[in-house]
Amino acid sequence: MQFCTVVNCMDGRVQLPVISFLQKRFNAEYVDSITEPGPNLILSERKNPALVQSILERLKISIEHHNSGGIAVVGHYDCAGNPASYNEQIAQTQKAISFLREKYKNIHIIGLWVDENWETHEVIGDE
């Protein structure tokens, strides 16, 4: 079994497009989902330490117990939890990924954007 992990918005419109994209991108059978409203904002600003810690604890389970082969952080169009513009969300996603790369140096971490047609795009790739 091959797993990857997504830190995704809770918005149901983005779940299936992101899962399908990640199964192909990471050649994964299963996608562990960590959902919060506006997760790219949460991880980029880190204003709520308890929430950030909760995300990190769930990531740890996916990485240590499911041997996750990659992580994706998602932003999307029409996000109620993060109503920022596309450019702002891309910048937030980059900051979120930089934060996660400090903690998970040996895991592929990418950023995704789900557009107004609910199509998923890789906007930040592996370093």
The overall average pLDDT, rounded, is 97
Shape: globular
Provide the gyration radius in Å: 13 Å
CATH superfamily label: Carbonic anhydrase
User: Which CATH first-tier class would you pick?
Assistant: Alpha Beta
Count of DSSP-assigned helices:
4
> CA-to-CA gap between the ends?
25 Å
Q: Can you tell me the residue ranges where pLDDT is under 50 for at least 5 consecutive residues?
A: none
- CATH-defined fold name: Beta-carbonic Anhydrase, Chain A
> How many β-strand runs?
5
Structural domain count: 1
Strand order of the largest sheet: 2-1-3-4-5
Could you describe the 3D structure shown?
The protein is α/β, with parallel strands linked by helices. It has helices at 12-25, 39-45, 49-66, 86-103; strands at 3-8, 30-35, 70-76, 108-114, 120-124. It has a five-stranded mixed beta sheet. Helix 4 links the parallel strand 3 and strand 4 (108-114). Helix 2 crosses helix 4.
